[in-house]
Design goal:
Elements (H helix, E strand, L loop, with lengths): L17 H6 L4 H16 L18 H23 L11 H7 L7 H20 L3 H5 L1 E4 L2 E4 H23 L5
Antiparallel strand pairs: 1-2
Helix pairs in contact: 2-5, 2-7, 3-4, 3-5, 3-7
Length: 176
């Protein structure tokens, strides 16, 4: 039985994440399976030069966006692991705008970033598939806000859905 088919209550996550929860759909575990093929399809044939494209000044490149997605997935999965295992230690937030410039994403080959993405997603899927109903329902604190393991898988799937949408709407149509 998939313990993640029941969406989290609004008390299980910070209001900031409501859109991600909505974007995750009705089965976030299925979303974690369907998102990688879509991402690969969207980026198939993209050169390293094209993957450094930014749709506006000050916006992340495609490579930076991908590394941001990987970083966020790792952080959300780590939070889920800690909370699922009953660790009540409040978990700190992270500042994405500090992480991206230090990732050196634009210097990396796109193929390497995609391989890392695939490895992280495989590990994330294994982790969430290992959780039963009790683990999925456990709550903790991250970034000073309550969060459940159930909410974290929805947030993760919704976060990626958000960035896939941005790739489709703002990046890929503007590539030369």
């Amino acid at each position: 039985m998939n313990p993640f088919l029941t969406p989290p209550a609004t008390t299980e996550y910070a209001p900031f994440y409501a859109n991600y929860i909505r974007l995750a759909g009705s089965d976030p575990l299925q979303a974690l399976c369907s998102q990688p093929p879509l991402l690969h399809q969207l980026l198939d044939g993209l050169s390293d030069e094209q993957a450094r494209f930014r749709y506006a000044p000050g916006k992340w490149s495609i490579k930076e966006k991908l590394v941001h997605m990987i970083d966020t997935e790792r952080i959300f999965a780590y939070r889920a692991l800690r909370i699922a295992r009953g660790d009540a230690t409040p978990l700190p937030g992270y500042e994405q705008d500090d992480y991206v410039p230090l990732s050196d994403a634009d210097a990396r080959p796109l193929t390497d970033i995609l391989a890392e993405y695939d490895a992280v997603r495989a590990a994330t899927r294994c982790l969430f598939n290992s959780f039963g109903a009790a683990a999925a329902a456990r709550c903790g604190t991250a970034s000073g806000q309550p969060v459940s393991v159930r909410a974290l898988v929805y947030m993760l799937a919704g976060h990626e859905a958000h960035h896939l949408q941005l790739l489709q709407e703002r990046y890929l149509p503007n590539l030369a």
